[in-house]
Amino acid sequence: MSLDDLVVRCNIKMGESVHNEAPDGTPIDPKLMRIQRTTNPRPKVPQKELVFGKVFSDHMLEIDWDYKNVRKEGGWHPPVISAYHPLSLSPAASVLHYALECFEGMKAYKDVCGRLRLFRPELNMQRLNSSLARLYMPSVDPDAFIECIKELVRQDRDWVPEGIGYSIYLRPTAISTYPFLGVGATKEIKLFCIMSPVGPYYPEGFNPIKLYADTLNVRAWPGGVGNTKVGGNYGPTIRPQMEATRLGCAQVLWLGEDHTVTEVGAMNVFFFWVNEQGEKELITAPLCRGDVLPGVTRRSILELAGKWREFKVTERAVGMKEVVKAKNEGRLLEAFGAGTAVVVCPIRAILYEEEDVVVIKEGDDVGPLTKRMWDALTDIQYGKFDHPWSVLID
C-alpha cells in the first residue's frame, strides 16, 4: 500500500459519508410499508433462560432491491414486515458462493417507563453503508431504514425484555440473491432484519474473561475488509476460537504484524495504564490501518473519556510486547473489551506465548474505569436520563 493510499484510509473514519458508485435506483420508502401480522405467534422463553442469539421474535423486516430487473427503474421495493420465516434462495445465489453479504448488530432497549429505545442507530447505518460500498452494493437511506427498523421493534415490543443487561438484538443483513456463478456485482439483493431477545453475551455476565492472543492466525490486515462487517470476516475465525476455548479462554485476541493488538472476536479492546511518560492513558487500536472495526461502543467510550478529561485518550498501534512490559512494571491498570453485544467486558488475563498476562488477580474487583464505563453506557441505553445517543422509538 502506498503512503497516499494509507493517508486516504486514515481520513475515512466512522461518521464520514462513504461514496458508493453502485446504482441505487428507487430509495427505501417507509410510507409504502406493508405489515402482515403473524397468525401463529412463536413461544417465548423465560427471561432468565435466554441464550444470546438463539431465540427470535415473531416478525422480520424485508426489503428487496434489483438492478432494473423486476421494475423498469430498479431500486428498493416497498418494505414488508411479516412473520419470521425461512428465506427462499436459488442454489446459485452469489451469497452462497462468494460471501456477498454484510450485516449490522444493534439493540433496542426498554427503559424504566416501558418506552422503547435505540442506541446511536445512525452510526450503525453509516457502518452498514460502508460495508455495502465495499461489496459494490447500493446504499440505504439511513433515516428511512431506521424508520423501518423502529416499526419492526414496535410490532414485537412484547419481545423486548426488561432490566439492565437485557435487550433485543437486531441483525440487519444484506445478501445477494442474484443467481449467477461468476464473481461480479450483484443485480438482486435482499435486505432484512431479524430480532433476538437477549441477556448478557457471556454466561459469566459482567465478570472478567480470559483472552487467547493468537500468534498464528490473522483476522484482518491493512487494506483488507476488517473495518467492515462482511460475512467473510467471521467464518475463518471459528477454528481459532475453538482452540481458544480448548485453552480455557473466552475469545481470541487478534494480532497483526509484530504482534500488534487489533481487536477481540466480538469486541474492540482497550488498555488503561500509566504510560512510560507517567501519564494515565486509555488506549485502543487506531482505525486508519483498516484492520479494526469502527465499533459504535468503541466510539462512545472514546467520546465519553474525552469529555471527562481525567486522563489521556489515545488511538494508536499497541504491541503485545508493550502490554507485557507495562504489566511487568506495574503500569497496566485495567483492560476491557467493548461492543454492542457485550457493552463493556472486563479482561482478567491474556494468554500470550504460553504465559498469562494477568490484569485482574483472583478475588480482585473489576477495575473502577471499566465499571464506570459500563454504568455510563447502560444509563444512557436504558434511558435513565435524556441523552442524544438514546433515540426513543415511541
UniProtKB/TrEMBL annotation:
PROSITE patterns: AA_TRANSFER_CLASS_4. The modification N6-(pyridoxal phosphate)lysine is found at K229. Its EC number is 2.6.1.42. GO terms for biological process: amino acid biosynthetic process; branched-chain amino acid biosynthetic process. CDD domains: BCAT_beta_family. One of its GO terms (molecular function) is L-leucine-2-oxoglutarate transaminase activity. The keyword Transferase applies. Pfam families: Aminotran_4. Its cofactor is pyridoxal 5'-phosphate. Gene3D superfamilies: 3.30.470.10, D-amino Acid Aminotransferase, subunit A, domain 2 (3.20.10.10). Belongs to the class-IV pyridoxal-phosphate-dependent aminotransferase family. This is Branched-chain-amino-acid aminotransferase. The lineage of its organism: Eukaryota, Sar, Stramenopiles, Ochrophyta, Eustigmatophyceae.
